[in-house]
Amino acid sequence: MSAPLPSHRVLPTLNADGTRRWIHPRLYRGPKWRARRVAAWALMALFTGLPWMRVGEKPVVLLDVPKREFTLFGHTFLPTDGVLLMLLLLSIFVTVVLATALVGRAWCGWACPQTVYMEFLYRPLEWLFDGTPDGKRSGTVLRGGLRRAAKYALYLVVSAFLGNTFLAYFVGTDALVRWSMRSPFEHPAPFLVMAIVTGLTFFDFAYFREQMCTVICPYARIQSVLLDRQSLVVGYDARRGEPRSKGKSKPGSGDCIDCFACVKACPTGIDIRQGLQLECVACAQCVDACDSIMDRIKKPRGLVRYAAQQSLEGGTPARLVRPRVLAYAALLAVLVVALVATARTRGDAEVTVLRGLGAPFEMREGLAVNQIRVKVRNRSDAPRRYRIELFDAPGARLIAPENPFEVAADAQRSTSVFVMADPKSLFHGVRNVRFRVSDGAGYSSIVPYRLLGPENTGGPGGTP
User: Fold this and answer.
1) With contact defined as beta carbons under 8 Å apart, do 287 and 294 qualify?
2) Residue 240, C-beta contacts closer than 8 angstroms, at least 6 positions apart
3) In this structure, are residues 444 and 347 in contact, taking their beta carbons and an 8 Å threshold?
4) Got the DSSP string for 404-424?
5) Which residue, among 412, 345, 411, has the nearest Cα to 58 in the 3D structure?
6) Predicted TM-score (pTM) of this structure
7) Chain segment 262-312, per-residue pLDDT in tens
């Protein structure tokens, strides 16, 4: 016995019998669409051009995962800068939360890559082959399987371009250009990453499409805790539109003539007249569609518009300043101040003192000798010469084969030094000392270190 079919559509992308409902939204070229097109072109140009831009000698963005170095706007962040990265990510998250409280899901409809590339790159390419839903563009002369093959081949080329652009953010444009001129067998791992990204991009925009927004994306699920009744959303003014009249406005009826233009224009397949829904991405295509119909029937625009739920239901006008917004703004301010303060305290170099390889110490001529590795990362834009000194350690002597030693700009280098100490100056084989590393240009760092020696001594040389 087969299960009974539901009386209504469960998801906008599914028919009542469970089959896929392919959505082909009708295009209404209104002011909101034109503004979104400008924003989309700018964002696509930014995504493509950002890896090629430079600040000084460094790329604007380079996420070098193997080296664990992130370069943002010409500044390189290391794994030791985890606090900075955490504050940056938290600031971005709180910014999204604040923006949602103010303007709803504007990010989804205006700036999300899924919407931008679907509606302003892949969808126009589809119209070249299949024609537009409104019949204003007939599409290519190719028919049947040949037309689909040509369309998907073009999709694959565009997806490969996006895959290579994505890879450039992680390997840099120099490596990308070099690899593009060589066989994939010479760089199999990066090629595999690019191929996987290309395949996923092709699958997303050729098949999965709006289901990424309605089924996969978690942002729609959490919007209920980010929005309030005074947040700006795309909504239908039921007080003005109801009761509906089919085909044309009649005396005693509302302004909605039940033409379904708003439904035909929706890229996720919902009916905005049913209220705020998690599938709504706030793209405002329904606003342009409804406004064009209102112009035809000589009614005021704004039956579907950006507004707060409270005002749509006849309540008081929405307030921009309210407790939720103030709390988010205050939290964001604290995070930004902490981020700036932490970044300003970051020095021009990073010094690490490590124990040398091999035995922890050796005895030479009655002295305990510790081999020590000093690793210096020069964060500045010019080469620096770093001097190593043993600081406040009477009875101990520093021997450095190269002191000072030079480190190139934005480079890292290690050197070995030796500390010779009288075993009597150690307390049970341990003594705490400090190294001072300076570059003569204003940078100076004091790093603690623990010397080791024979344990059969108990001199007064400090506590372990």
Assistant:
1) no
2) 254, 255, 303
3) no
4) SEEE-TT-EEEEEEEEEE-GG
5) 411
6) 0.79
7) 999 999 999 999 988 888 999 999 999 999 999 999 999 999 999 998 888
